Amino acid sequence: MKIRFGLTFILAVSLFLMSCLPSPPGGGGKGARTITVYGFSIMKEALETEIYPKFAAKWKAEHGEEINFTSSFAGSETVTNQILQGAPADIAILSIERDVDRLIAAGHAPNDWYVTPQKGIVNKTPFVILVRQGNPKQIKDFPDLAKPGIRVIHPDPVSSGGAQWSILSIYGSELLKSELETGTKDANRAEEGLRAVWRNVISTPGSAREARTQFETGYGDALITYELEGLLMKQAGAPIEIVVPRSTIFSEHPAVIVDRNVTAEERPLMEAFRNFLWSDEAQKAFVKYHFRSVTNESFNDANPEFAKIEMPFTIEMFGGWKQAYPEIIEKIFLERVKNK
Question: Which ranges in the chain belong to alpha helices (H)?
Answer without folding.
Answer: 2-20, 44-46, 52-63, 76-84, 97-105, 161-182, 187-198, 208-216, 227-235, 267-276, 280-288, 321-324
